[in-house]
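Students often ask what a 'structure token' actually looks like in practice. Rather than answer in the abstract, let us consider Glycosyltransferase RgtA/B/C/D-like domain-containing protein, a protein of 709 residues. Its sequence is given first.
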Amino acid sequence: MLPFFMAGWQSGGLRVLPFLLALLMFLLAGCRLPKGDPEGGARVWTRPATLVALIFAFGLMLVLVALPLIENDALEYAAVARFLAKEGNLQRYPMVVADPDSGLYAPSIHPPLFHLALVWGHAWFGENVYLGQRLIALWSAVGATYVVGAVAAREGRQASVYAMLLLTVTPFWLSSVAGYGIDAMRIALFTAAVASIVVVIDAPTPRRGASVGLVNGLAMWTHGIGILAPAFAGTALLALMPVARKWRVMVAFGLTASLSGGGWLLRNLWMFGSAIGDDWPAANWPALAFELDLAVRRGLFTLPGQIIQGALRPWTDVGLFGPVFWIALLAPLLALRQPRAALAVAVIVVFGFTTLALFSVATGSLLVVKNPRYVLTVAPFAAVAAGIVCARLVRTGAAPRRGVQGLLALALLWAAVNLGIRSYGLADLRLALSGQERGFLQKPRFTGGPLLAQLHALNNGRVLSFRPPEVAIYSGHPWIDHFDPRLKALHSSDVTTAATWLGRQGVRFALLPDYSPVTHGRSILGFLLADPRWAEPLAMHRGARLFRLRDSPAAIECAPQALGVTVATYVRRGLGDVLAGVLGIPHLRRLLPGHEPHAVPATAFDWSSANMGELEVVLKQPFEGRFVATLQLAGSGVFAVDAIIGGDDGKTSEIRLIDSLADPNSRAVLGQWQTSFGRKLSALRIKPLAPASGRIELHDVSVCRVAER
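Now compare that with the structural description of the same chain:
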């Protein structure tokens, strides 16, 4: 918060302040926690633990510093921080009204701590705020690892090392640290705040309760989910403290936590009627069905899906969360047999969050389970619990030491492979350190990079962006956000009205990511981009597409093309398919024996995704050039329409025209594209993306070839 509380924050003298604060944090991190294990105390700075942390820090540093910002949230935080640094105050945060000059619209009402930390990055590195975000993520990730080691060290050095390793090898933790700087910071501060109550449990005094309450209150400034820090800390204090001093300590804890962290929440309640969350009006527009679309795509459409894919996902998605949550399942039993503060707190946090997620599902809300990054918040405590479990099992001989070490080695290999795949073809230390962030656009694996570079070069007119933060950071082009509240009226209008309004706003381009947001798949904007009179395809890269929008309709005709055979991929149903359909969990098809696909002829009107899988509509005569595909579909699942483009070399590629949520009543969807030189449109492929959520039926299909009159 310091940048806006101190005058002249841009001056060079104040730049030393964050470094002094960081040094103080570093020195405090080396302090002992009260001893809790007779085998050797709780000293954090053991050689093995330090070695683990240093190796982790070095490897993660190379990845973090060298990778471009790609994830939507990371880009949005960078864009907002740059705007706040320019404004020099918080008067327009949160940005519930789009900035008229740039088009920046960011109505998230989360506390601004991470944004302001990035503002310091501007003070240090100038426009290279990206390096500041990476270094914050690195520092936070290493800090979280040390806190995990500090808490687990109360059970001995072995537990400390196991816990640090188990957090380090969690694939989703590594990918989130690499992709989202905010996750590393909020999780590190949440972990440190809640873990600090161990000191109070061992020696409960009102003074310590107030100190820990202050820390937990400050943790609420990182993110809306930070409100869970005092909630879990308070629950653990109530459950574990001696009764004699409980209420005096709890009052001190509650007062300081509320006073230090409640200000922003009260502000949100006063201004927006909600303490946490996002003030996105578009999420409530009936035409978009935003929440329903999200639930179906993430496998949360059915109650079993919400439980297995949502509340219990740390255990059902081992590829994402690794072994740490499974090992932690034994922690409650050990906590009952040998109740010690460190393990008891970890159990309360991990299983408390799971209980909260199940309660959310039971009340019909997806708030807690809709994003797996939420449950990642408690992963450090799962690592503490799992590390202590491993240490106790090895110590008692219940598990062989080499077996535990082998499991950790396999998990480390899996995490390294995941991080390597993420980094391959993208990481570039020279570009990252130089601040020439647009140089990453030339990386072949940077989806849409050439399109953003093209927009930067054109530099005329605004762009209708369906992923605005990347336009803000990488193109510098003024834009209109696809969620801008001013667009609401367009969704009940027609193509001509929408095109005319956008033209008056100076919009000359539209940029689609490699997927279809609801504002494209279920919106008049999708019809606009599929209308050759108003929209012209310019370029595509890895599924991302760039269109030029016209000021007035062009004289265009679209000649219908004859369709040939249709071929459905018949799926012989097995155990995996049956369970996927009953439970609403599509990935069970991959985990269990099930389908044996093979192609069979079918008429388009006999096809449905429930019993025949994908459908391919083949043109009698492939052609080169611009085309529009129109389909009439109905159902309850998510579908995608791909254009099959081939050439004389025999190679084919698929171009995603649209993906969307089907409606019970039949509705039309359209997609427009243009083949490159020497390539021809040969077929359309309609496929279900979330087949377990229902069936999709095709009622009609047509393809026309675009030509000027």
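One point worth highlighting: The chain has a mean pLDDT of 83. Ask yourself how you might have guessed this from the sequence alone, and why that guess would often be unreliable.
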